[in-house]
Amino acid sequence: MEGIREGGVSIWKGIPYAAPPLHSLRFRPPREPAAWAGVREAKEFGPAALQGESPSMKFLGDSPLHKREDCLYLNIWSPGADQKKRPVMVWIHGGSFMYGSGSSHLYDGKSFAEQGDVVVVTLNYRLGVFGFLHLSDIGGEAYRGSGNCGLLDQVAALTWVRENIEAFGGDPDNVTIFGESAGAVSVGNLLAMPLARGLFHKAILQSGTARCKVTLEAAVKMTEQLLAQLQIERQNLSELAALPAEKIIEASGIFPRRAFGPVGDGVVIPEHPEKVLYAGLAKDIPVLVGTNAHENKLFTYFDPAWKDMDESEIKVFLERTFGSSWAAGSHSAAQADALNQALSKALNQASNQAGYEDAMTHYVFTYPAIYFSEGQAKHGAPVWMYRFDYASKALGGEAKAFHGLEIPFAWNTLLAQETEELTGKEPCRFQLAGLMHRAWIAFARHGDPNTPGLPDWPPYNEENRATMLFNTHNEVVNDPDGRQRLSWEHVFKN
User: Fold this and answer.
1) pLDDT value of position 68
2) Considering 181, 207, 373, 487, which one is annotated as catalytic?
3) Per-residue pLDDT for 317 more than 50?
4) pLDDT above 50: residue 185
5) Which residues form a coiled coil (predicted)?
6) Alpha helices of 12-135 — where are they, by DSSP H?
């Protein structure tokens, strides 16, 4: 395979890790790619998954132009194809399972390879309706796992890494998976999936944890609605294979923009991932997990609908948002009362935009990360927690430490001109990026993010709740914002 050389780094782009998921393979688990004769050129990124447009993803720099249904490709950065068995880092991109790619300038693995002597892999996986349309309840065994094709693509890529990465200078027995947002949720699901066991050895979750995005009941209902929109009878599912992809994308427009994602199908995801992880399923996997201080500001900035709501609309919106807590299953009377009190408190605190942003940051990101970390720690698993507090001067400073801002710091891609739109131009950001980058490298190498230049960073447990606060001044704080943590605890714990 012929790639390119940039300085001291070899790069291979657009390597197929699975067969194109077209025609009869549409909505089916990935198959092995066809073999090729001779030397394959690997100098250009493969196409990203089919997807719509997202203003926030465009701002973050992950809005690909080259998109096709044939999208199952990965990319590799390595100091050399010399069989030196370096640590391997496999990145899973975010984008609400609807947007994004493995080829954004943010995910340039050159610095990891140069400064960390590690091998970096990025990948594309099927998104939206093509990645997460649950057909097996209607189509039977032929469509087994269809509601999680996107996750199965990730498993296929990790299988490819295990079988091939040694030829690119990587160690198949020292693989770290890491991701942000939907990528971190993917990492959480992979930690809980029997099919992924043994394919990786450490995990980094940035602004996301393990959860099913869509219940089985909701997934079946969505499938029925889409088939009706396409005028396809239940007994004629094979017609889906012949439809133009664009027609399926157009029909899926009846759903909200972020409707699709991992389905709790009982097959690919046999049990609720949060619960099995809290029970200790992945206690042998070191994890690094964290969030940003002002996650939700990105979404309110690019969705101005909030500003146009009157008080009654705000109340309905908040009740719909917070009333869907995934922990709100079977409760005792006392627990139900505590849950209602916590939700009422959240509604009262979130009656303005700033309060809403803070509540959503804790509800969607901060507390789930704490819950996940508690579950790991109580079983003795090595777990480190961080919070990214650096406030960007971009967007007039309005968005602060918003969702996704930590990515160019962890990847050390600040020199890319495009990142100034995200981070601002302050010189102090380079020191922070260097320290975070080295912490990620240390974790991938040893399973411990401690590195020179950072304060001593103890593992997280329920006694100390040690959390590294990344900022212009880095410090470890025990149980930061502990009062808010306690106020959300009843919302999530049964």
Assistant:
1) 97
2) 181
3) yes
4) yes
5) 213-240
6) 55-60, 110-116, 128-132
The residue ranges of DSSP E strands in 130-201, in sequence order, are: 170-180
What is the token pair recorded at 344?
């009422």
What average pLDDT does this structure show over 436-463?
Answer: 97
Q: What's phi and psi for 165, nearest 5 deg?
A: -70, -20
Question: pLDDT at position 212, please?
Answer: 82
**Side chain identity at 411, as an amino acid letter?**
W
CA geometry: angle 404, 80, 61, nearest 5 deg: 20
Proportion of the chain above pLDDT 90, given as a percent: 78
Catalytic residue among 166, 274, 295, 357: 295
Whether 295 is catalytic is yes
pLDDT at 11 over 70: yes
Query: Judging by beta carbons within 10 Å of its beta carbon (0-12, 13-18, 19+), is residue 43 exposed, middle or buried?
Result: exposed
Alpha carbon distance 397, 424 (integer Å): 9
Domain locations in the chain?
A: 4-492
**How far is the C-alpha of 296 from the C-alpha of 294, rounded, in Å?**
6
Decide if 66 is catalytic: no
4-492: CATH superfamily: Alpha/Beta hydrolase fold, catalytic domain (3.40.50.1820)
Q: Which of 134, 294, 362, 403 is catalytic?
A: 403
Terminal Cα-to-Cα distance of the chain (whole angstroms): 52
Q: Which long-range contacts (CB under 8 A, 24 or more apart) does 316-324 make?
A: 318/346, 318/347, 318/350, 318/351, 318/356, 319/347, 321/360, 321/363, 322/346, 322/347, 322/350, 322/359, 322/363, 322/491
Number of Cβ within 10 Å of residue 344's Cβ equals 12
Q: Which two tokens stand for residue 112?
A: 């990891």
Asked about 181 being catalytic, the answer comes back as yes
Pairing assessment for the beta strands 475-478 and 383-388 based on DSSP bridges: unpaired
Across-strand partners of 386?
290, 468
Is 282 buried (19+), middle (13-18) or exposed (0-12) by CB count in 10 A?
buried
